[in-house]
Amino acid sequence: MTVEVALSLMAGARVDRLVLCDGDDQSVGLITLARLAVLRESPLYTDRIRLRDVPSLAR
């Protein structure tokens, strides 16, 4: 899932965090709306960045 899709999903669901799961539905991390917002404002951001590429998801 891309960061853009995650942001859209979170906005639609009106939540501020998203639990990430692997293919076996096991929790592998948590990403917050605030963290994604900071990433989106970064000069390195592109609309192709995927959640799995975001370092330290479990913060």
Short description:
It contains two helices and two strands; from the N terminus they run αββα. Helix content is 34%, strand content 19%.
Question: How is the secondary structure organized here?
Answer:
Blueprint: H1 3-13, E1 17-21, E2 27-32, H2 33-41
Antiparallel strand pairs: 1-2
Task: Please provide a written account of the structure.
With 59 residues, this protein is of the alpha+beta class. 34% of the residues lie in helices and 19% in strands. The protein is built from two helices and two strands; from the N terminus they run αββα. A two-stranded antiparallel ribbon has the order 1-2.
Structural key phrases:
alpha+beta, two-stranded antiparallel ribbon
Structural class: alpha+beta
| Percent in helix | 25-40%
Q: Please list the strands of the largest sheet in the order they lie side by side.
A: 1-2
Largest sheet: 2 strands, antiparallel
Q: Helical stretch count?
A: 2
Spans of at least 5 consecutive residues whose pLDDT stays below 50 are: none
How confident overall, as mean pLDDT? 86
Q: Which sequence of SSEs, written as H and E, runs from N to C?
A: HEEH
Give the overall silhouette.
globular
Strand content: 15-25%
Radius of gyration: 11 Å
In total, the number of strands is 2
End-to-end gap? 18 Å
